[in-house]
Design brief:
Blueprint (H helix, E strand, L loop, with lengths): L4 H7 L10 H20 L8 H11 L14 E11 L5 H17 L3 E5 L19 E6 L10 E6 L3 E4 L8 E8 L2 E9 L6 H20 L4 E7 L15 H12 L3 E2 L6 E2 L4 E2 L2 E5 L5 E7 L10 E12 L3 E6 L6 H10 L2 H5 L4 H19 L2 E6 L9 H19 L4 H34 L5 H12 L10 E3 L2 E3 L2 H15 L28 H10 L13 H7 L4 H13 L9 E8 L10 E6 L2 H20 L16 H17 L5 E8 L9 H10 L4 H11 L2 E7 L2 E2 L3 E3 L10 H8 L10 E5 L2 E8 L2 H21 L13 E5 L12 E2 L2 E2 L1 E2 L2 E4 L2 E4 L5 H21 L5 H17 L2 H4 L5 H19 L7 H8 L4 H19 L3 H4 L23 H4 L2 H10 L3 H4 L4 H12 L12 H12 L5 H6 L19 H7 L4 H14 L8 H10 L6 H18 L8
Parallel strand pairs: 1-2, 7-8, 19-22, 27-30
Antiparallel strand pairs: 1-14, 2-4, 3-4, 5-6, 6-7, 8-12, 9-12, 10-11, 13-14, 15-16, 17-18, 19-20, 21-26, 21-27, 22-23, 22-24, 25-26, 28-29, 31-32
Helix pairs in contact: 1-2, 4-11, 7-9, 9-16, 10-11, 14-16, 14-17, 19-20, 19-21, 23-24, 23-26, 24-26, 26-27, 28-31, 28-33, 34-39, 36-38, 37-39, 38-39
Length: 1155
Amino acid sequence: MPISAVHWRLVVGYNNRSKLTYFQKLFAQSFAWVIYYSIQNAPEMPFVFFIFFLFLLILLSGDVKLNPGPKKKYLSYNFSISHWNLGSLPAHDFSKMNSFFAYNRIHSYDLICFSETFLDSSFTDDDRNLILNGYKLYRADHPSNTKKGGVCVYVKESLAIRLVPLQILDECIVLEVTINNKKGIICSLYRSPSQTADEFDQFIDNLDELLQSIRLLNPSFTILLGDFNAKSSAWSSTDPTTNEGHMLESLASFYGLSQLIKDPTHILPTSSSCIDLIFTDQTSIIRNSGVHSSLHPNCHHQIIFCQLNLKIYYPPPYERVVWNYDKANIGLISRAINEFDWENCFLHKNIDEQLRLFNVTLMNILKNFIPNKVITCDDRDPPWLNEEIKKLIEFRNEIYKNYVRNGMTRNDYNLLLNTSQQLSVLINNRKSNHFAHLSKKLNDPKTSNKSYWSILKTFVNDRKNPIIPPLLVNNQLVTDFLTKSNLFNTYFVEQCNPIRNNSTIPTSIKFLTEKRITELQFSIDDISKIIQTLDPNKAHGYDGISIRMIQLCCPAISKPLHLLFRNSFENSTFPVDWKKANVIPIHKKNDKQIISNYRPISLLPICSKIFERIIFNNLYKFLDDNKLLNPNQSGFKSNDSCIHQLIKITHDIYKAFDASPSFETRAVFLDLSKAFDRVWHKGLLFKIKAFGVEGKLLELIDSFLSNRYQRVTINGQSSNWCHVNAGVPQGSILGPLLFLIYINDLPNELITTPKLFADDTAIFSVVHCSNQAASDLNHDLKKISEWAYKWKMEFNPDPNKPAQEIIFSRKIYKENHPEILFNDNSINEESSLKHLGLILDEKLNFKTHIQAKISKAMTGVGLINKLRSLLPRSSLLTIYKSFVRPHLDYGDIIYDQPNNQTLSDKIESVQYNAALAITGAIRGSSKVKLYQELGFEFLSKRRWMRRLCYLFKIISHRKPLYLYSCLPQYLISERYPKCFKLIRCRTMLFESSFLPYSIKQWNMLNSDIRQTQSYSLFRKSLLNSIKPLANSIYNIHDSVGIKLLTRLRLGFSHLNEHKFRHNFRDTLNPLCSCMNEPETTSHFLLHCCNFDNSRIILMNDLSYIDNTILFLTESNLTNLLLFGSKKYDAITNKMILTRVINFIKNTKRFDGALY
């Protein structure tokens, strides 16, 4: 076989550990080409180059490295705190928060305290304007829940801090911080200056009680800081001592507290005072304290701070390799893979050696033909924060020092104020320009889909991936990342053990089918198809081979993968390196400092997942063809879903309600603890064999399950590899199917109706007789306990998460039901609970669920409203459809009540508010016109369409069987083809539920639509019947201009005729100020003499575009100026509307607020 140039490139493939310079790489590649051409043209020449080849080997050896220099040590800094009374966080569109963010990039305080936050319950902690990356937020809003007073504290997520529950003062937050094994108390509070004498006495009494409670905690140090609104000459020589200051000073003296701040903190044009204070009982730990100038011209309070002689250590930034896939040489990659002799290289090697050779060779190829570099992952400044802003902040601090040093003169004060204004304007402009740049990229058709979503998410949620805070272990807080990784790994591995009991594998096996599966059927083309369906945005495993790499290599890579997969199957051995997982801890809920509140997600090698998909496809087809999977299980099955199961559950309950007399339904919901992690491997293999899996395939699955290893990686720090004794890997392709096999026989001996979705288990009993229903439920709960014991699983072991019951009933007076028990404990009855994402209540009217979803959706609407000036309309529509409407879409076909207009209007109001936010239209605008503007269908019609689409899938797929079997028979009629008999309903509630109502609506469809074979055509025909064609704005980016144009399109603006029609009190008639005629849209655009000069410019511009425009009728011309025309292309229409917008803005007719 002739040696190719590509082979020589592989010979000098760069070792992953080497750090070669550009010239070393260039020399190596050039030398390889010389050798290649010498062999081709002059065979004796290679001997001449022998000495050079030796030199090359030394140069490229993985053992020869650049001098790494001294080992990186952990960096350290002094713990610091700041406080600022900023007089309302939300004011001026959170501009003070922007200024402080820039300021904090310089000082990086560990604790940031704000007073007078003016927050209430309408602001959630997830509000993007309240997010400070890398910090956790604690709040104590004003007790009246109004926008006044209040305090909040931002704490670095890396710190060992916990909230101390001392709620003695209302506007007060008490935190316990642990630094180098020293525990201290930090208290941030605010006292209103408007307190009466009695209220202040009460404040002092409460503060006294608070300090006593803190003293009982025996902290190493105590720090109190905030705006006390009290003056004392002991704190500032220029301040007279007030009664409040005297009492506060006496109380501080009694507890041994010293006040650190001596300079003015509240500065007005004619006076200044020191009322923002920091008290401590350990002045020896204070390294530095003082005052920095205010960051906003509208805030008279200055920033106070202190720095402690306590060191905090954090690891250095970690490194990772980034690849420029856009510049990959795909041709050479494919050629290198195709010309490598994989079969001969794999000979006489076991599967693990073959895999290692494959990985090394592939990575060498990729490194040669995909540009890559090592970057440092650290906390970078946002793009809008530049050195000019930082220098101006420092300059303002110097001005403040001069102001204090020079005796607080009026000139210095004015300079201070001017600099604050300059800083505020600079930050706002920089941030606006940055967002404008991002907005422009969103409108650029060249922006890739991945970049588009990445940019869009920066607007939707500015929060970066939160770091894992210090972990609370044995009452000690752990901050070291490596220790955290090992603690998580130890905990996760401990969960991967079956329950210890005396249960053993049954001695005999009962096969569920006579059929057997022993082989895997797959081809090179099958592998290529699987590769193309992979999501390139998914994370890769520890081997560093990403999905994007594999897809760039496809189809060439499919051949060596086929060899690997075939050899693995023939040897019944799953490669060891494919059984190693990087585990990422994902927070579930509750306290982030508790390890048990996290769940593991395994990141497995990509090639392993491709092989798993092949095994999955073969195994699932066998199980499905032979109907081996329990029909009551809906998880991880094709043509089944959460929604399908919820449809069946609610259908049965509504049907029971519809009976005469009405029946109640008792339902019990169970939690299978650590289900995936505790699967008993021996028990699973026994069950797999009972399904008819034998031979090499069974041995391969055994190998897949055994000897698995995992490690946890946090912030670049990886734990030790640990052996996993049980469970199926979460994050794998095959794991969920193996889990379904494991719990497949759980419902077999149950009397009641079981419903399973993976590990979510529920049983239902329609109550014809309360005693019999209770007996059946108790029987089944006992059987479930016995099954769990037999197969070493456990239901609801946590006393804080007991089994739950709902009695679904429409009766005014419920029956008295006998008690039911599970694991010898009574089951508590609940009025509502969440199951598969839907909140089920006892009357099944979904009021609680709908209200919760509306609240979440309205939070997104508020975000859209804030982003309207920053983003183009297309992006705002994307945010609505991707982040807001899905809240309402999920389960809508179940909770929908077509006959309940009040409920329908309540849901519709969300979309109406979103439409107002997107367009900037005035509330009261026509809903029909507004939806026409955006191309929105009414949500009630959308739910109608989605019902019919779900029904189409059930009919066409004949799955899931438990829903298909609920369908009534077809009518035998040539006149009404493919129509169903109606389901008889006694109550309106049952009639409006999914199946009865959907079948009724199905029969009313046009016969051609009913007989459509394609789902996409069926959905398209329904959507076209309800969705209006949106009015185009032709990619115009002027948000203000588009808002004004849209208001004219909708017929609701500043114009008098619009206001008169909408009953504005200040508009007594519709006449224009020119007094000629009503001030309609046409009058404003074409006739009003007040704007003749601007109109002349507009008409001249339009005549240059098309001189026939001026000859249109008034109606057609008005329509053209508002909407453009199909007669013109998009560019011409954009030119027309741009000039119309310029005319509208130049008239200044729409300036000012609308009253």
